[in-house]
Design brief:
Helices cover about 25% and strands about 30% of the residues. It contains 5 helices and 12 strands. The strands form 4 sheets. It has a 4-stranded antiparallel beta sheet with strand order 1-2-12-11. A 4-stranded antiparallel beta sheet has the order 3-10-6-8, with helices on one face.
Length: about 300
């Protein structure tokens, strides 16, 4: 299998996979969904009680607009920076061996975040205060702080006289255990195609509309050349143009342009939540698949020996 990056930004990626089959591509898709590990908040400890009167004589009670269970669910879905070289799975941590699961807590397998936010005072103009993901402070290396693009994720609301304080514990897990450990979403693929001009006379109706493609390129005969269009973004733009003509302009029948599948090539795309980079997710998925197949080979050798 050959892999080429078509487009990429901080969280999205589009890849061209060639010299491969549907089963191989689908295996990578499933591996990303279920096998690639990432950090996620899996345990929350809420501090309950009433704060003693402050300098203004106000008392604050540990209440919020949402139940603790809902807050814990929201915390679980906040992307947590993941560094495989720094952490291990809780069950693989030597410090946790021989201890019950509720006693696990080694720094080698856990990140701790602390949040303490107080609602508006009696004399404040605001009636409510929003608690954001950015209010979580990591107890450790600053590189483990909540990513910048996630800091404005709302968690709950505090009214006057309310406060919230909790400790959130993040650990490594996989998507096959819970969706909070899935590193990417919108994972899909489709067969790569090329656009071919079959009938210039029929296609003239579309060319006369002077539809703009990428980079202000006009859809005309020159775009296709001798062997058709293979650039993926341009092919997608041509496909959209043809569909637009059929649905909105009312043209029925042949367009003079066909889309032919390129054998063994697939366009693969997905979006990460920011805990891992798109390239890291793909590479790790391939590593996980390799380890699975190596394990199967070893078991077969033992069984057949």
């Amino acid at each position: 299998m050959k892999v080429k990056i078509i487009s990429q930004n901080e969280r999205d990626i589009k890849l061209l996979l060639s010299e491969t089959t549907v089963s191989n591509v689908n295996s990578i898709r499933r591996s990303i969904m279920t096998d690639v590990p990432k950090m996620a908040i899996s345990k929350v400890r809420f501090e309950m009680g009433v704060k003693e009167p402050d300098s203004n004589g106000e008392r604050f009670e540990s209440l919020s607009a949402l139940p603790d269970e809902v807050i814990a669910h929201r915390l679980a879905l906040i992307p947590i920076p993941t560094y495989f070289e720094d952490f291990v799975f809780p069950e693989d941590d030597p410090a946790n061996q021989g201890l019950p699961e509720d006693k696990w807590g080694s720094p080698a397998s856990r990140i701790i975040y602390h949040c303490s936010v107080q609602g508006p005072g009696k004399e404040d103009e605001d009636e409510f205060k929003v608690v954001y993901a950015g209010d979580l402070n990591v107890l450790g290396d600053s590189k483990l702080e909540i990513p910048e693009h996630c800091k404005e994720i709302p968690i709950t609301l505090l009214s006057k006289g309310q406060y919230i304080e909790f400790y959130a514990y993040a650990s490594l897990g996989r998507g096959n255990e819970h969706a909070k450990w899935a590193p990417a979403a919108g994972i899909g693929y489709y067969k790569n195609t090329k656009a071919v001009l079959n009938d210039k006379k029929v296609a003239k109706e579309i060319f006369n509309l002077k539809i703009k493609l990428n980079d202000d390129q006009i859809l005309n005969e020159k775009v296709f050349g001798k062997d058709g269009v293979t650039d993926i973004d341009t092919v997608e733009a041509i496909r959209k143009a043809v569909l637009h003509i059929e649905k909105n302009v009312g043209s029925v029948g042949e367009s003079g342009i066909t889309f032919e599948e390129i054998p063994g090539e697939f366009v693969f795309h997905y979006e990460t939540d920011g805990a891992l980079s798109p390239v890291e997710v793909f590479n790790r998925a391939c590593e996980e698949l390799k380890m699975k197949f190596d394990s199967i080979n070893e078991q077969l050798e033992i069984a057949l020996s």
